[in-house]
Design goal:
This protein is α/β, with parallel strands linked by helices. The chain is built from 8 helices and 12 strands.
Length: 273
């Protein structure tokens, strides 16, 4: 049995199937997915259906595009230029797919391995992050989920404060775990830049560049940041979004030996926007 972590698929269904063929994925194996299963690529519906059918073989965390799909479906978001989620919204099994997606975690922690879409804010330990993720997951799985989506969008508050409550608390937790790239020394979020590491906004650094002794012995697997093209420069932090939807590649990492597998994208080469 092997476990493979796959980066952001974003509706690149054909590439996902090619990657599963490459790794000879079998019924004895498991998949960990970094989120952003859907949107921007041409096969969002097929991707979502295929992953759901894998059932207990797959653990996927929620990404910002997955949450955007849910918000639009529930009437609290609007489609943006470049979105490719209409086929899901029109599908006869739409409600079933959305219910399944809404019950996915924001963070998975297993044997000191962390799976998360955007990363861990350096002001939190892994256990802190898991606890805060569970707070938001409880809301998403409750009868209050529409209130969550009604207030999900926004960049404020931009820094963690323990006294935060309600929608403001849910939003900052969500933004750390699904949208973060660059942060300030106290955990201040900078959510506009999608650039490479050497082009950080003044006063900010990549979240994984801040030392956190409480992460010692952990390995963190994340997606979201296509501009990294799989490179963090850290031996225990693994970037798996290699920009398939932007024309680069779709990548899997086998946890047992840290071996990488990639298939080329079939999408036109573009720049993330």
């Amino acid at each position: 049995m092997a476990t493979y972590v796959i980066g952001d698929i974003q509706g690149c269904y054909q590439e996902l199937m090619a990657l599963l063929d490459l790794i000879q994925f079998s019924a004895a194996d498991r998949l960990w997915l970094t989120g952003d299963l859907v949107n921007r690529g041409p096969g969002s519906l097929a991707t979502l259906r295929a992953i759901k059918q894998l059932d207990r073989q797959v653990i996927t965390v929620l990404g910002n595009h997955d949450l955007h799909l849910l918000a639009v479906a529930y009437g609290h978001g609007t489609c943006k230029r470049g979105d490719t989620i209409d086929d899901i919204l029109a599908a006869p099994d739409c409600d079933e797919l959305l219910d399944w997606l809404r019950f996915r975690p924001l963070l998975h922690l297993e044997e000191r391995k962390v799976l998360v879409h955007a990363g861990l804010p350096p002001i939190w330990s892994a256990d802190d992050a898991l606890g805060f993720a569970r707070e938001v997951e409880a809301v998403l799985r409750s009868d209050d989920y529409l209130r969550y989506f009604a207030s999900m969008y926004g960049n404020q508050p931009d820094c963690w404060r323990e006294h935060l409550s309600g929608p403001a608390r849910w939003r900052i937790i969500t933004n750390y775990l699904t949208r973060m790239r660059f942060v300030g020394p106290r955990g201040e979020l900078e959510l506009k830049s999608k650039s490479e590491l050497n082009a950080a906004p003044a006063g900010y650094r990549a979240w994984f560049y801040y030392p956190n002794p409480e992460w010692a012995g952990y390995r963190i697997y994340f997606g979201h940041w296509a501009a990294l093209v799989g490179h963090t420069g850290m031996h225990d932090v693994f970037a798996l979004d290699t920009g398939c939807v932007w024309g680069n590649s779709l990548t899997a990492l086998r946890l047992e030996d840290q071996r990488l597998f990639s298939v080329p994208s079939r999408q036109p080469r573009t720049i993330e926007n």
